[in-house]
């Protein structure tokens, strides 16, 4: 098979309609995206001798919340004031503004792909979804870095600039700080994994179909 024939075969494969099972699966995958709005994406907790029961804050797609009816966020910000860290509040996390719209757009694109899409639109969907997820994670890491590296020089307690733990545990002064993904992130991961599986399914099926066509062409 010549390069031209291979390209023509690949382009024809991209225009193939999706399997019915894939269309149904895409419609089902919208459910994890919707559930991501109802659960926290990340939790950051702090334990110290003076706080044996710990403090924690949770980042949702649209808000920042904390334990003890939100009081933990206030307490964490009061502690951060002593080391010169900027307050962690909704105004400081403007990155959250675009996440609900991005997830809503992904849900609409997924339903559109399920209804009228082909292999090409499925590949486009997983590329866009991967970009949104990667960008959101990168911005989250940057925000953690920014908070830990924008300490006021006039703070009562002097600390060397630091990056809080993104995943795992880290000691900051006398606080053991832990940071872990939560259910919202797992729902989004399930959506991405489902897209990857469906794309792999079509690519493998397309490769087998091309191989069979090549065998037939040689036989003829």
Helix proportion range:
55-70%
Instruction: Name the overall outline.
Output: elongated
Head-to-tail CA distance between termini: 13 Å
**Helix/strand structural class:** alpha+beta
Order of adjacent strands in the largest pleated sheet: 3-2-1-5-4
* Whole-number total of structural domains: 1
Concise synopsis of the structure shown:
By secondary structure, the chain is α+β, with helices and mostly antiparallel strands. It has one domain. It has six helices and five strands.
Write the layout of secondary structure elements.
Layout: H1 3-14, H2 20-35, E1 42-48, E2 51-59, E3 64-66, H3 71-82, H4 98-116, H5 119-148, E4 168-172, E5 175-181, H6 183-219
Antiparallel strand pairs: 1-2, 1-5, 2-3, 4-5
Helix pairs in contact: 2-4, 2-6, 4-5, 5-6
């Amino acid at each position: 098979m010549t390069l031209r024939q291979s390209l023509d075969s690949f382009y024809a494969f991209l225009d193939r309609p999706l399997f019915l099972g894939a269309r149904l699966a895409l419609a089902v995958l919208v459910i994890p995206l919707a559930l991501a709005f109802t659960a926290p994406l990340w939790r950051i907790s702090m334990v110290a001798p003076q706080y044996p029961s710990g403090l924690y804050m949770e980042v949702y797609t649209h808000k920042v919340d904390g334990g003890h009816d939100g009081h933990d966020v206030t307490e964490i910000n009061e502690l951060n004031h002593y080391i010169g860290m900027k307050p962690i509040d909704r105004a400081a996390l403007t990155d959250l503004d675009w996440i609900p719209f991005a997830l809503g757009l992904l849900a609409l694109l997924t339903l559109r792909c399920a209804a009228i899409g082909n292999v090409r639109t499925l590949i486009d969907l997983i590329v866009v979804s991967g970009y949104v997820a990667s960008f959101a994670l990168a911005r989250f890491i940057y925000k953690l870095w920014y908070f830990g590296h924008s300490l006021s020089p006039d703070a009562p307690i002097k600390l060397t600039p630091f990056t809080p733990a993104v995943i795992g545990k880290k000691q900051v002064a006398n606080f053991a700080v832990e940071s872990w993904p939560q259910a919202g992130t797992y729902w989004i991961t399930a959506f991405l994994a489902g897209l990857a599986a469906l794309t792999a399914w079509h690519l493998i099926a397309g490769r087998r179909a091309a191989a069979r066509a090549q065998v037939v062409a040689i036989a003829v």
